[in-house]
Design goal:
Layout: E1 5-6, H1 8-14, H2 17-33, E2 37-40, H3 42-49, E3 57-60, H4 64-75, E4 78-82, E5 87-93, E6 99-106, E7 108-111, E8 120-123, H5 126-131, E9 141-143, E10 151-153, H6 158-164, E11 166-167, H7 174-177, H8 180-192, E12 195-196, H9 198-209, H10 218-229, H11 234-243, H12 246-250, H13 258-276, H14 285-293, H15 299-308, H16 313-338, H17 347-354, H18 359-368, H19 372-383, H20 394-399, H21 406-420, H22 427-438
Helix pairs in contact: 2-4, 8-10, 8-11, 13-14, 13-18, 14-18, 18-19, 21-22
Bound molecules: adenosine-5'-triphosphate (ATP).
């Protein structure tokens, strides 16, 4: 009673050759070993939606690990097994030499002993495997070992729901079994511009009234939270989570105020701006949005949110410390700027003040201030000033006859500051400065690291 349809042509037309070859290879190996093998889940959903997805998840009816081993041999890769869950990952190098992986699971039936608990595992068929999935659009499979290749397996109306652009669950206990699905529903809804079906919405409300969010472990909540922050439009997800009452169910302090909404949107713009710069230091989206969601909350309230996400104490202390520091620095900057003083404040002084502020906190200040002068200075600091180095180096100082020691650092720092302030813009003027600093340093022939040596 699966809705039959062959999507071999879709696979041929829509997927890159390398992915197509992998699917055919898995099918051939399945045939050889007598094991039915399927591509499942998000990969099939995105194939129907014609969206790129490189994450192939395979499900095997029978011995999944045997198929994974055969696949690894063909791909000259290796297998990482999780015997307990009968799952494995094939890790190999693709044509470009990049590390790639394919998840291979064994079709299984999962029992949940109580809501939000980890499942115990038993062997079963593809139908049961698909039945335990979250939404109909994620419960599709393509059979790879059959002839003809590419039979779509759709027991639960996934094709219809992709077409109707709706998020539906497979059974009424879905959110009770796993409350993270409330967050996942919103994530997929916003990503694909689908809508959560009326039935599913009611079931989410029901799960919230049963306080099931409280049973979610910190790490699972954090993992979902991170996935949301990595979406193209996290604020849209947060707005919807708020509308459905999910944010409040996680913590009453997280309900979105107009200010928080506005800030979340500005943070998104800021991240987009930063990412377009292509710097090799990535900004942590989760942290930035975390700061935004905790706008106007005090230490204790924010601290409670850290605990709720299962984050370690040291991380909390570090980040909350950064936030305090940011608040202090921000106050100072805004005062300077109000007095129109930053123009007169030396760049080097500004840099000194900002040096200890994390990238995320810098982006946060930039997003949240309405002061265009401050925004401009922060933007110059992020893109330019903080990357600046003196044009002279230790070797230059050694050539001036200075023995390595703490004075090196002081001179190079002074050279950088003079460069930032436009007082010594090039190596020549910085060397002049170095010489000047060396005047008055007594000559010495000693080789001690601390004692300067003049030729
Ligand atoms: P994404 O594009 O975000 O990676 P995905 O659907 O591939 O989407 P994964 O989290 O990688 O998402 O999960 C892979 C598949 O596993 C899903 O398509 C779904 O079938 C199933 N799945 C994942 N999480 C759950 C869950 N909490 N409950 C039930 N099924 C789940």
């Amino acid at each position: 009673n699966s809705k039959e349809r062959n999507i071999g042509k879709l696979i041929q037309d829509r997927l890159p050759a390398e992915i197509r070859d992998l699917l055919h290879l898995a099918g051939q190996l399945g045939r050889k070993l007598g094991l039915p093998v399927y591509a499942v889940g998000g990969f099939v959903r995105d194939l129907l939606l014609d969206r790129p997805n490189q994450d192939i998840d395979l499900v095997v009816e029978g011995n999944g690990i045997a198929l994974a081993k055969a696949l690894a041999e063909e791909l000259r890769g290796r297998v990482r097994e999780h015997q307990k869950f009968l799952t494995s990952v094939v890790i190999f190098h693709d044509a470009k030499g990049a590390e790639s992986r394919i998840d291979v699971a064994t079709a299984r039936l999962e029992y949940y002993e109580y809501p939000a608990a980890l499942p115990t595992v038993e062997l079963s068929s593809i139908k049961m495997d698909l039945f335990r999935r979250d939404f109909t659009i994620n419960a599709l499979a393509v059979r790879l070992d059959s002839t003809p290749f590419g039979q779509l397996v759709d027991f639960f109306g996934g094709q219809r729901d992709v077409k109707e652009r709706v998020i539906r669950v497979l059974h009424t206990l879905s959110f009770v079994e796993d409350p993270t699905r409330c967050l996942r529903a919103v994530r997929f809804e916003q990503r694909y511009k689908f809508r959560i079906g009326a039935g599913a919405e009611k079931l989410i409300k029901n799960a919230l009234s049963l306080k099931l969010m409280d049973r979610l472990s910190g790490p699972r909540l954090f993992s979902e939270y991170q996935h949301i922050c990595d979406e193209a439009d996290p604020p849209a997800c947060f707005f919807r989570l708020d509308e459905l009452g999910i944010l409040r169910a996680i913590s009453p302090h997280l309900a979105l105020t107009p200010n928080r909404r506005d800030l979340l949107c500005r943070l998104r713009e800021m991240l987009t701006w930063y990412r377009l710069l292509y710097f090799d230091e990535p900004a942590q989206a989760w942290l930035l949005y975390f700061l935004g969601l905790n706008l106007n909350l005090n230490y204790a309230e924010t601290s409670a949110h850290f605990h709720r996400l299962g984050l370690p104490e040291v991380k909390k202390t570090e980040i909350l410390g950064q936030r305090e520091q940011m608040r202090a620095v921000r106050g100072k900057l805004e005062t300077w700027q109000r007095q129109d003083d930053v123009g007169r404040t030396k760049v080097s002084v500004l840099c000194d003040l900002l040096r200890s502020i994390s990238l995320e906190c810098l982006l946060y200040i930039m997003a949240s201030t309405d002061n265009p002068g401050l925004q401009k200075n922060l933007s110059r600091y992020i893109t330019q000033w903080r990357r600046e180095k003196a044009d002279i180096c230790g070797a230059d100082l050694r050539r001036l006859g200075l023995a390595p020691g703490p004075l090196y650092g002081r001179i190079l720092k002074a050279a950088l500051e003079a460069k930032l302030d436009g007082e010594a813009p090039n190596a020549q003027s910085q060397l002049r400065l170095a010489r000047k600093m060396l005047e008055g340093v007594p000559e010495s022939g000693g080789k001690s690291c601390d004692r300067p040596m003049r030729k």
